[in-house]
Amino acid sequence: MTCFDRRDLGLLLLRLGTGGVLAVHGAQKLFGWFGGGGLAGTDEFMESIGYAPGRQSALAAGLSETGGGALLALGLATPAAGASAAGAMAGAAAVHAPQGFFAQSGGYEYAGYLGLTSAVLAITGPGRLSLDHALGHLVNRGWMVPAALGVTAAATAAVIGGRSRRLRERQEGEQEALFREEDAATS
């Protein structure tokens, strides 16, 4: 009898792929690696899409993706890692949602898939080919799954809600300025 089976191997591959992609995206945001903007460029981008303050938003997204992705790949603290990455991807999906589902149209397909996969890994656990298993699941307890997902869901809802409010206020301000310009032109 072996110490692992096909399920464990499948979870390892899923963790390595998903975690690796997330970690690379986070490294773009944090360090400017792989053609990314680093914190300075990501700061400006976050502000432009309504996530403010931009620096803290860039840091939170970068750490959630890099840290969550690396921990998922290692299979360490899997509930927290998966929840953190899923939260970051929910924030990204909110940005892409107005373009619809498909990524080829700028939609949320890719962010949604990475977020779903991260959440599923948080729920299913990392399998036996993981650091969590090797460490006796010290940071992968059953109670940690709903706690991590619940805290992340609440924080993500607050962040996305704040972004929506800022975008609405920005749009209202732009419309008001446009009306004033039109009034001034006709006066």
Task: Describe what you observe in this structure.
The protein has 187 residues and is an all-alpha fold. It has one domain (6-186). The protein is 75% helix and 0% strand. It is built from seven helices and no strands. α1 crosses α2, α1 (6-31) packs antiparallel against α3 and α4 packs parallel to α7. The longest helix is centred in the C-terminal third of the chain and has 43 residues, at 144-186. It starts with 5 loop residues before the first helix and ends with a helix. The model has no long low-confidence stretch (mean pLDDT 94). The chain crosses the membrane at residues 70-95, 107-123, 143-161. Keywords: Cell membrane, Membrane, Transmembrane, Transmembrane helix.
- What is the CA-atom radius of gyration, in angstroms? 20 Å
User: What does the largest sheet look like?
Assistant: none
Mean pLDDT: 94
Give a count of the beta strands, DSSP E runs of length 2 or more. 0
What characteristic shape results from the CA principal axes?
A: elongated
Taking the alpha carbons of the first and last residues, their distance comes to 87 Å
Element pattern in H and E = HHHHHHH
Assembly annotation: single chain
Structural class: mainly alpha
| Number of helical regions | 7
In the residues, how many domains can be counted?
Answer: 1
Helical residue percent band: over 70%
Question: pLDDT under 50 segments (min length 5)?
Answer: none
Proportion of residues in extended strands? under 5%
